[in-house]
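#onboarding

Welcome to the new folks! Below is a worked example of what a typical request in this channel looks like: someone posts a single protein sequence, and someone else replies with the predicted structure as tokens. Don't worry about understanding the tokens yet, we'll cover that in week two.

Example request:
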Amino acid sequence: MSKAIISSLYDSDVFKMACRQFDQAADAISLPDAIRDRTKYPRRCMAVTLPVRRIDGSVTVFEGYRVQHNVSTGPSKGGIRFHQDVTIGEVAALAMWMSWKCSLVGLPYGGAKGGVIVDPKQLSESELEHLSRRYMQEMVNFLGPHTDVPAPDVGTNEKIMGWMMDTYSTHVGHLSPAVVTGKPIALGGSQGRREATGAGVAYLVKKYLEDMKIPITKATVAIQGFGNVGSETALALEGYGAKIIAISDYTGGVYNPKGINIKKALAYLQYAKVLKDFDGAEPISNEALLELKCTVLVPAALERVIHDKNAPKLKCRLLAEGANGPTTNAADKILEQRGDIEIIPDVLCNSGGVIVSYFEWLQNLSSFYWGRDEVLVKLFAMLDKAKESVDAQQRKFKFSRRLAALTLGIARVAEAKGARGLFP
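Example response:
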């Protein structure tokens, strides 16, 4: 019998949620005890202090983390989040989900995640650069093209990835573009990477609406979160002919049953920095947006926004999880009992970002670059393959779609760990 780990290190609601998902999936496939905890818990974690000199001459010390969940299937892979509510438990949960996601879509990666406790909106650009470079400097011995490959996440972007890549390259003494993905094109970034996650969400929405016999030109869409993922999802779905009736950011949302002009909203956002007071729609709260009557609901912000209090009130036909972990375990049970809402789970739905990150990494390693159309064709082919495997697993075992996706991802990681033996 294996002895379960008892640790308060990752203690948080979101990590407990990820563990409950794992336990349910492990039970469903009768994962042997000898391999369970090895597959479930993170391989290692780093915590660092990050002193930054502010423009007024003072010094602020920030705290940062990196959790490498699994390295048995390849270098670990996952974003770096700059957000004031980051915890090491949240980072560990996100790293765990990355392991299942990479495994599910067939990438030669394990899962990782990073985070810094900071509100990046409160920093000047020079302070943000100093923080980004200091984070990479502290992590430089734990990262690398064949060890752990970061990417952007909430609060970070391609400019920050460029700074981090430059810091690492300076340390090793040569240009090393493959150390991070999501970089500017000029520094070895991939065509199609910026829109990859949102384009993938939209593509899967289109495919599942086809399965549901709902024409996408008749579909209405509400999107919570209008950052990179939410905005690119909106643009792609609008391009397919869907009507976007609501969007939101951290200041609140806007709603127009006749449809929102997404390009106009993006132009306003670039000018005003927030959606508040956008004149193309009426104000609506983030909470009310989730309960709108619509064909497709896309939570594309932070985790745990759909819970036991609002799950009974959802009025969508399809829930497409653009964010990681947006639906709590309790909400999952309610939605499964309701039976009237199809779910595209996060580990499948938002996997487009890591798939094109993989393409970027491959291009960096080979110094041979692809065009945008080639990238998107390859992306959609991998999403089709992953969708088919999830749907087959769902039919075979009568699982929910989330359980089908998780069991596939977890089983592949467990098999790799078992094949390599105890040491890795």
